[in-house]
Amino acid sequence: MKLSVSRGRAVDLRVQPVDEVLDRVQRSLGVRLLPNTMVRKRRSVGARTDRHTWVRVERRVLDKIPDQGWNGTESAACLQGVAQPEWLGCVVWRDTDEPAMWRADETELLPGAPVGNAILGEAPELADPWWEALNASLDALAAQQTGRVATPDTVTVTQDLVTDSIRGVFSDDVDTTVERWVPAHADLNWANMTAPTFSLFDWEDWGNAPQGLDSASLWASSLAVPALADRVRHERRSDFESRDGKVMTLFACAKILGPHAHPEDPRLEPARAMAEQVIKELQTS
User: Fold this and answer.
1) Is the pLDDT of residue 6 over 90?
2) Domains of the chain (ranges, CATH numbers)
3) pLDDT tens across 33-62, in order?
4) 156: closest CA among 45, 235, 247, 64?
5) Could you give the CA distance from residue 31 to residue 106 in angstroms, rounded to a whole number?
6) Which one of 65, 212, 260, 269 is at 20 to 30 Å from 98 when CA atoms are compared?
7) CA–CA distances in Å: residue 82 to residues 127, 182, 260
């Protein structure tokens, strides 16, 4: 595939031509992508197919592909007890003009629409069985074992990353040591879950992470709706009450309050208040 951009320039698939890429995907997977269903994002394009499946195509630069490889959706197919679309196949190739790789994964269709955007501005209508399914999937995920390491926002999560992120915004007096690492989705937000039937998708970055990363991420994406944020904390209270869960809450707050904070972000004040509370709890524990 050849894009009309110079080597090293950031590529935005919302505006860059991708016809040749999609033609290659269709030939390789033996499907026809339905144009009127296409969803274009900055580094991915997705569409329904003529055999009632979904294909997601992603471009990733080489230095964002970790040593463990770039097969999160494929490897997540082995997870037991987690509600997710069934993975069916893929095609992967290297870009001939840019230091990047292309990957297309085919999965079954989602059982419902995404709950909303990554950050919600109003509360969704979610029945108790939905929350029960969320808890069952996250608990089942955390109970399994993997050699993968989570890459939230395509950055490998490490103890140093956690420490640097928190201390770059808050006090150096906080002990940020992570005690327990468990498998996590690593991109848990309202855009990656469906309703009214619960299903969790977009598994590109899953792997071992500090306990509570997923719960803290979902809470952070809910902060503009206080009742929803409270519901997340209630449902995932075992995570939030753990020491690692408190560290991950502070990690999530650091992302909101850090140098790229938007002054009109409605999550700023609740994140700041929670950070102060969690710091006190960590300092006295």
Assistant:
1) no
2) 19-108 (3.30.200), 113-284 (3.90.1200)
3) 999 999 998 889 999 999 999 999 999 999
4) 64
5) 10
6) 260
7) 19, 15, 34
